[in-house]
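Today's session is about reading a structure prediction critically. Students often jump straight to the picture, but the first step is always the sequence itself: look for stretches that repeat, for charged clusters, for runs of hydrophobic residues. Only then move on to the predicted structure, which in these notes is written as discrete structure tokens rather than atom positions. Here is the chain we will use throughout the hour.
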Amino acid sequence: MKAVIFEQHGGPEVLQLRDVPLPTLDEDEVLVEVRACALNHLDIWVRQGLPGVSPMPHIGGCEVAGVVAAMGPKVQGFSVGQRVLIAPGLLPRQVSEWTTAGLDHLDPDYRIHGYQTQGGFAEFSKARACDVIAISPAWSFEEWAAVPLTFLTAWNMLFRRANLQAGDDVLVMGASSGVGVAAIQIARYAGARVIAVAGGAEKCRRAEQLGADYVLDYTKQDIAAEVKKITQGRGVDIVFEHVGSAMWSSALKSLARNGRLVTCGATTGPKVELDLRFFFTQQLVVTGAYMGSRHDLLTCLKLVERRVLRPVIDSIFPLEQTRQAQEHMENRRMFGKIVIRVGQ
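Below is the predicted structure for this chain, in token form.
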């Protein structure tokens, strides 16, 4: 089969389109003929050398949609040709205190498809049957691929970590990203007032079209000052953050007293400064989020199926242009998801 692999970590130039062996199935696994695989910043970090990448040479890609091509002998409930996606977060292989609490994403054995396993930038990808989820024709393969990781992460960040409530003011940093467009929709679904931050007039216009009540252009405006104007000097209840060092100061200054900042990424850098005096006198909460539970993923998929939430696609690249797709993401040109189309 054809796959985009890298044999060593580095820049986009390490990506190669190669013929590689078809995955061999264990008795509880499903082989998926990949039709689409969405791109995430995680794929770039994996390529650059994020600790824990396995195996090597490596195939990235964690948001896979396609059809069942073959099954191991113990697999039940699926049929060849059935439309499916592979859950980006793979369930732990043993029962633990975390899995019994419904917090599988906190288990040390929780893995991500395409990071700690071979992924979906290939004609075929495999996963255990418990990590394969049936999908309907309600959306195209490309649209389904644009959903699972980003919507799950945004849902966990807002509802589970930041305790989102109706009437909250929510500031969405990096609103043009895949997780950002998910956050705008989820916050609006919950009855929050959304202030979206993006770079440039076109991205701001699209964020407003998506449902943001206010849009701010970080290239032209002082974000914290504008937030205080919008909230009559109070600040927001929640900052949805994943940009990292470049926007950290603005993010903290935008919070109201007793506000919550939740973060899942560090696109512009992982090192930030925090004045503890401001932190404790304002009684702020800063929390992290990593993926989310399988239960919450199924909830997100249900809402997408019903068109309460919807995928937003920036662009679609063929498999052989995976390098160009990653360069497009690194240049921050997108609004929504970049998707790799595989096959027909």
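Discussion point for the tutorial: The domain at 151-288 is CATH 3.40.50.720 (Rossmann fold).
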